[in-house]
Design goal:
CATH architecture: Up-down Bundle
Structural class: mainly alpha
Number of helices: 6
Largest sheet: 3 strands, antiparallel
Helix content: 55-70%
Number of domains: 1
Order of helices and strands: HHHHEEEHH
CATH topology: Four Helix Bundle (Hemerythrin (Met), subunit A)
Number of strands: 3
Oligomer: single chain
Shape: globular
Distance between the termini: 37 Å
CATH class: Mainly Alpha
């Protein structure tokens, strides 16, 4: 229960920061703050799956399969706040997994939000993909999403924007 409360607070903080940033476009976001928020949300996703399923997950393809099973089992009946929380946590997890498996770094697009640009120049949008999985079910698989991203040099380009 405590982890869920922490996750709700973290998701609310991220949402508030994003709303504030949209209003204050002239004020740049500190990269390290965004990176640390993303990492915290990814860690909350891992903790949630461990608590709910008793399964250890990490930033790898096998874990994405387990996370997808969790999301599919919990996608119905979500209120908007819980849905937003899940998108924030599991989108961060998926993005960090893309970086671990394929290489790349977080980048921000004015039109599409946060994504991961791979060394091959492809930008993947994990938050959008998790939202689609919650809305559409297995048709919008995050397992297929990860498998469809070409792997390149795994040297992380974190903090290069």
């Amino acid at each position: 229960m405590t982890e869920l409360l922490i996750a709700l607070v973290a998701a609310a903080c991220v949402a508030a920061a994003l709303v504030w940033a949209k209003r204050k476009k002239s004020v740049p976001e500190p990269e390290q703050d965004v990176d640390s928020m993303i990492r915290r949300n990814a860690a909350l996703a891992i903790a949630t799956v461990k608590k709910e399923l008793g399964v250890d997950v990490d930033f790898d393809a096998k874990s994405v399969t387990q996370v997808e099973e969790y999301l599919l089992a919990h996608r119905t009946g979500l209120n908007p706040q819980k849905r937003q929380q899940m998108v924030g946590m599991f989108g961060a997890f998926l993005g960090e997994t893309v970086i671990a498996v394929c290489g790349g770094a977080w980048v921000k697009s004015d039109k599409r939000g946060w994504g991961v640009r791979t060394p091959g120049g492809i930008t993947a949008y994990p938050f959008t993909k998790v939202a689609k999985l919650l809305d559409n079910g297995p048709f919008d698989s995050i397992v297929s999403f990860l498998a469809g991203i070409p792997t390149g040099s795994k040297s992380s380009q974190r903090n290069e924007r």
